[in-house]
Amino acid sequence: MRLLWLKSDLLLPLDKGGRLRTWHLMRHLARRHQITYVSFADPDTPAAHVTGMREVAHRVETIVRRDPPKGSPRFWLDAARHLLDPLPYAVGKYRSRAYRRRVDALLSSEPFDLVVCDFLVPAVNLRETLPCPAVLFTHNVESEIWRRHAETAASPLLRMLYRTQHRRMLRLESRVLARFDAVLAVSTTDRQTFAHLYPNATRSPVHVVPTGVDVDFFPASESRAESRELVFTGSMDWLPNEDAMAFFCREILPIVRAEEPDVRLSIVGRAPTPAVRQLASDAGVVVTGRVDDVRPYMRDAAVYVVPLRVGGGTRLKIFEAMAMGKAVVSTGVGAEGLPVTSGEHLMLADEPRAFARSVVRLLRDVPRRRQLEHAARALVVERYDWSAVAGEMEAALARVAAGSVGATSTEQPCEPQSLVLDT
Question: Minimum mean pLDDT among 1-15, 59-73, 100-114, 116-130: which range?
Fold first, then answer.
């Protein structure tokens, strides 16, 4: 197949969950199919990040775009400009005539078999009528992320702003899902949520392409019996991760420390916000910023914590921790959509005291920790290596390109809706 793959950013460096998922899937697809990849790129993007994309794409097309640093005056000014925009800010800021012209030129000049719209964002720059089938690859139910932000926001002003973004995302998500020939979701949970929120929005099936993990890159690493190390990894400029660490340090870690005073927490990931950096003022909390390799930090940990209260899709970080044989304690939101059982593959707890009790138990009860470690590694090795997951995606894309998508969900078809989003 000849695939036109549309995304908002390059995949390198591989420091975000969405980038990692797409990279591994494209790496396998590129062995048998020709991929043209289109994305924005910052003018300061290292040339190696563009050339490195050719490992997973036959051709790479970039459109220059510079994002203001998050939290900077330019960032807030840009956000203010979108206060009256009917589109959610996270999508509307990517409207681009240059991106749309580039995609139009490619579709007019080359015979693609399929367009893959990776996340919602590229849809704002995609013309309504296409010469070939198109698939929307969703990594989350985006509206659910904003709903949960509104529920957990600390101030009335933030709650109001998040509710506004939630309403706009609901409208946009419904319209975007309606225009594609098929939708790819990363979990059965997400597929069911789409069916609940938008029962008439999809005119074609929602296929599930589960999360995978590179089990060779993340080898088993048994924790030291005496370890009191906790670790969290993720992009630390993503609001759900920032909220998770603030929640953990404020409400869970003090309870753990009352029982285990020597416990230490490493927060590992790119671009920590000022709020995340401030957490390092607490003795025993380390905020690393971007690291070249997260595995040494995970290797030393006795417990991998995922205290997410906001999110959607599935967390690659949990499968990476499981591949390394780590005992994981997560909230229900953190493990949402993953095929795991609490008490067998990991521990689930939502309330701060219950979360803390699970962490303390695993620090002290080494045989119980070993049970979780071994069961976690066994699950992902047997069923969720990326090669198997990519095969499922390839089959789904082939069916859509051939016009035989098949009935794989309970949603009923509906007529496509107009989606005029470019300005």
Answer: 59-73
Structural domains for the chain: 2-212+386-401 (3.40.50.2000), 229-383 (3.40.50.2000)
CA distance 311 to 302: 25
pLDDT tens string 279-302? 999 989 999 999 999 999 999 899
CB 272 within 8 A of CB 246: no
Q: Tell me which H or E stretch contains 130.
A: none
- Cβ neighbors of 287 (< 8 A, separation 6 or more) are 236, 267, 272, 276, 277, 279, 280
Which ranges of 229-303 would DSSP assign to H, the alpha helix? 239-247, 253-259, 274-278, 295-299
pTM, two decimals, is 0.82
303: pLDDT strictly greater than 80: yes
DSSP H helical segments within 116-269, as ranges?
Answer: 142-152, 156-179, 188-197, 239-247, 253-259
- Which amino acid would we find at residue 296? P
DSSP, res 124 = G
Give the separation between CA 272 and CA 257, rounded to whole angstroms: 24
Reported as a single tens digit per residue, the pLDDT across 383-402 is 898 988 999 999 999 999 99
Find, among 4, 70, 78, 11, the residue nearest to 41 by Cα: 11
21-43 residue pLDDT tens: 999 999 999 999 999 999 999 99
Please tell me the distance from the alpha carbon of residue 92 to that of residue 85, in angstroms, as a whole number.
Answer: 7
409 closest CA partner among 204, 226, 271: 204
Query: Residue 150's CB: how many other CB atoms inside 10 A?
Result: 19
